[in-house]
Amino acid sequence: MKKLLLLLSALCLAILIAGCGGSKDEAPAAKTPVKLGMLRLTSSAPLFIAMDKGYFAEQNIEIQPEWFDAAHPIAVATASSKVDVGATGITASLFNMAAGGQQLAIVADKGREEKGFPSSALVASADAYANGFTSLESIKGKRIGITQKGSTFHYMLGRMLETKGMSLDDVELVPLGKVSAVMAALEGKQIDGAILNEPNITKMYSAGTAKLIVQVGDVIPYQTSALFFSPEFMKNENANIRFLKAYTKACNYYYDAAIEKKDPQKLDEVVGIIAKYVKAPAEDIKLGLPYIDRNGKLMADDIKTQIDWYSSHGMMQGELDPAKVANTALLEKALAK
């Protein structure tokens, strides 16, 4: 009897140890629905990959995609917790909300301007290019389309002009609300040029309606866009980390395929996934694959540069400590696991 009891005790202990070990790295049984606000842009590639290849599902994250036409509405929806995760450009409005007390957290890279990699660019209409608008230096007096004041496009244009000793006063800004409206105005010759991003640059270039002037990343380094979590979603660290584990796995996959280009078949697969979600030809996607950090890490120092620029141009109210809005701790935890 004593031997039987000892055997049963040992068996229970083994089951308990195995159970603890097994549950340590496994996602909880209950699915976590996550509303994800994003744009149909190439820079969202890791999100598309994680959705398409089941990386979110592996972490029991059930993605509910919500598609937007501009960055600002995503920031508003995330700040108000109408979406859990926002994936878009880092704008003045986002910083203003954070400065006003909203608990938004910028948590990971979702695209940056890096020298030698296409992402965002200054383009000219075909007519304006033919008439001499062929460089950043020849931009004076031109009508330049952007989505909104305080947007990433606004910031890019301002910073690039400053590198040439110019300012936003040297051009006529034309805010048009959304990317599709900027493209239509460029095609209709209502503006001379615009800041656009991929795959829209390649789309217009291929159609002969726009000419490339300069890639933003060749002029300035810039953390263009990011993932940021809503105040409500930030309360669930377990879900935060599981989301980021799936995301970083997809960043690894994208980097190996699109940046290092180790495997032509993997590159074609990634291009096909992106093309499906952004609804653009695979040939166009392949010509404009942006740089994204292999582990999804932010250029955290650039957040301060952006805050300072928006403040100095009167687009921010109040002060904002960059450390209050850039949360790198969650990504580090996800990578550690």
Structural notes for this entry:
- The chain is of the alpha/beta class and 337 residues long.
- The protein contains 15 helices and 10 strands.
- It has helices at 2-25, 45-52, 55-58, 71-79, 92-99, 126-130, 152-163, 179-187, 200-207, 237-259, 264-278, 282-286, 300-312, 322-325, 329-336, and strands at residues 32-38, 61-67, 85-89, 105-109, 120-125, 143-146, 172-175, 193-197, 210-215, 225-229.
- The strands form 2 sheets. The chain has a 5-stranded mixed sheet with strand order 2-1-3-10-4. The protein has a 5-stranded mixed sheet with strand order 7-6-8-5-9, with helices on both faces.
- Helix 2 crosses helix 10 (237-259).
- The two termini are 44 Å apart.
Reading the helices and strands in chain order gives HEHHEHEHEEHEHEHEHEEHHHHHH
Strand count: 10
Class from secondary-structure proportions: alpha/beta
So how many helices?
15
Query: Which stretches are low in confidence, meaning pLDDT under 50 for 5 or more residues running?
Result: 1-27
Strand order of the largest sheet: 2-1-3-10-4
Approximately how much helix is present in the residues?
Answer: 40-55%
Q: What amount of the residues lies in strands?
A: 15-25%
Mean pLDDT: 90
Alpha-carbon distance between the two ends? 44 Å
Q: How large is the radius of gyration?
A: 23 Å
**Largest β sheet strand count, sense and barrel closure:** 5 strands, mixed
Describe the global form.
globular
SSE map:
Elements lengths: L1 H24 L6 E7 L6 H8 L2 H4 L2 E7 L3 H9 L5 E5 L2 H8 L5 E5 L10 E6 H5 L12 E4 L5 H12 L8 E4 L3 H9 L5 E5 L2 H8 L2 E6 L9 E5 L7 H23 L4 H15 L3 H5 L13 H13 L9 H4 L3 H8 L1
Parallel strand pairs: 1-2, 1-3, 6-7, 6-8
Antiparallel strand pairs: 3-10, 4-10, 5-8, 5-9
